[in-house]
Specification:
The protein has 345 residues and is an all-alpha fold. The chain is 74% helix and 1% strand. It contains 17 helices and two strands. Strands 1-2 form a two-stranded antiparallel ribbon. The longest helix is centred in the N-terminal third of the chain and has 31 residues, at 8-38. The chain is globular, with a radius of gyration of 20 Å. It starts with 7 loop residues before the first helix and ends in an 8-residue tail after the last helix.
Length: 345
Amino acid sequence: MKNKSLSNNEKERIIEEVQKMLEERGRKPLEMARKAILEEEIESKEVKEALHYFITEYWHDLARPTLMSICCEAVGGDPNATVPFAIPLSLISGALDIQDDIIDQSKTKHGRPTVYGKYGKEIAILAADALLFKGFTLLHEAYTRIPKEKALKIMKTIKDMFYELGNAEALELNLRGRIDITPEEYLDIVRKKAADVEAHTLIGGIIGNATTDEEKKLARYGRLLGMTIILYSDWIDMITFKEAIHRLCKEHLPLPLIYAFQNTCFRKILTPILKKNKIVEEEYKRIFKEALRAQGFEKFKEKVGNLIRNAICQVNGIRKRSDLILFVRAFYPPLEDVDIKTTML
């Protein structure tokens, strides 16, 4: 079953409502997280400057605190109760983002220098450490304000998330330079990386006194939503020349190309190009064109559509699920709108 086409008005309404939700629910925890780290006494001018850059100019993550809030409310809880946890988890997530850029050697992202790109590896590591230490300190304080049973459940959720993310990052390193990656192999890593989003949706439910059944539903919803978010980044990387070249030269193939490489003709034509140390724009345009012919993009869109539909199915029976459905649906209209035949060509 395919996604029904939405009218332009409906697409705009979904995007506007989610943007409003992000501002209303995510802005306060994000600003409080910024304030918490900026008020720390840091003697190193370079680290202080790097943190200020990341916190005030680069970092705009409203999604995670928003997700925790709407999941809490969806099961009948008070969304404001999530703020003490959203603040430290935002800081910890920020640290992981910096570390991820170091691992991927990403000096720019979406047209902006990363902390790694602007200040170098050593300062980036120290800035990430500062975010982690502050985040875990505030997380400990948040644990003391809730019943022990809840605190233990949240601790286990966060511990499991870190181990699964670590496994995913290690496995992802083995994909670099390979053109024989199977969709199943890559999607298994994507599923593991989605543990981050699952942790946020599940913690929101725990804080909101979700039933065991509701916790399971929110966890599955978060996992599928997390996979959607990660794969949406693959899409953005594919249609942005500089990001695409970085992926091909420094990281690994994005999913549309992995699907395309299952086609023998595509593999034969483009393997010599992809094995080069440097790929110029005209060569990438050819890669893009051949990926279209090999149905890589169509298979990718079908996969993302299935993830979105499955995520929506997971929240059936949740008391107030409308915001959860709206949040995940926001990822499909932009994907649907892109004319993949003309984007890069």
